[in-house]
Amino acid sequence: MAALEPALEGFTVLACTGSHALLSLAVVAYPRIDLWVDSIEALLALPIPDQGPVLLACTDDLPDGSVLELIMQLRRMLASRPLLVMAVLDASTDPLRLKALAEEGVQGLCCSHAVGNGQLLSALSAVLHGGSFVDAGFAAQLRQPSHSGSRFGSPSCLSRRERAVLEQTCKGYNTEEIATHMALRNDTVRRYLSDAYQKIGVRDRAQAVLWCCFHGLVTQRELQQVFR
């Protein structure tokens, strides 16, 4: 950490995780963390400095959304400011979810099973020096070809915005709420949904939720948060 301190100069370092054990470990092992919280809502309420780049370390077990949701909302808050993201994920994370995170620009994909063996420090070093880090197990999954059949009806046929709108739909948000979260017009959200429905071959929101569950774009945990 002492060797990396010059590279961290000017960064605001955030930690967001629902795992209190992991958060405690991170705070002790990485004293450079400026602000730490356990939910997306709490992070968005933080007094984040209005200048300089931000480094976010997070997990995918947040009580009020996914890593993708967190990144989308934080990027909206930061506008054009640089954001570096290190995500600590469960070893069983679906390959399609890994690909979605990689496409979203997450620079560090770490495995929770490897926490404590220096992986987080290696990832931090790579990310701060302009590179990326992917856990070996995750890298193997990302190299595997998709088994979804044709591009029609598979996640690969969706644009990033279409996928984000579908994920928001699965979380129970209506068109107006999605428009607010994503800083879009209501008719733009409806167009994204219409285009996504046509691409994946569904007719309504209920079918879209089932499709997202099957393809790993929404987890059982996230659905439980919506319907609890």
Keywords:
about 230 residues; alpha/beta; Rossmann fold; Arc Repressor Mutant, subunit A; 2 domains; 6-stranded parallel beta sheet
Kindly estimate the percentage of residues that lie in beta strands according to DSSP.
5-15%
Average pLDDT metric? 84
Structural domain tally:
2
What is the distance, rounded to the nearest whole angstrom, between the alpha carbons of the first and last residues?
A: 41 Å
Commentary on this structure:
46% of the residues lie in helices and 12% in strands. It is an alpha/beta fold. It folds into two domains: 12-143, Rossmann fold, CATH 3.40.50.2300; 155-227, Arc Repressor Mutant, subunit A. A six-stranded parallel sheet has the order 2-1-3-4-5-6, sandwiched between helices. Helix 8 (175-182) crosses helix 9 (186-200). It is globular and about 55 Å long. It starts with 11 loop residues before the first strand and ends with a helix. Mean pLDDT is 84; it is low at 147-151.
Could you outline the blueprint of secondary structure elements for this entry?
Blueprint: E1 12-16, H1 20-29, E2 35-37, H2 40-44, E3 54-59, H3 67-78, E4 83-89, H4 95-103, E5 108-111, H5 119-128, E6 133-134, H6 136-143, H7 160-170, H8 175-182, H9 186-200, H10 205-214, H11 220-227
Parallel strand pairs: 1-2, 1-3, 3-4, 4-5, 5-6
Helix pairs in contact: 7-9, 7-10, 8-9
Explain briefly what this protein structure is.
Helices cover 46% and strands 12% of the residues. It has helices spanning 20-29, 40-44, 67-78, 95-103, 119-128, 136-143, 160-170, 175-182, 186-200, 205-214, 220-227, and strands spanning 12-16, 35-37, 54-59, 83-89, 108-111, 133-134. Helix 7 (160-170) crosses helix 9 and helix 7 packs across helix 10.
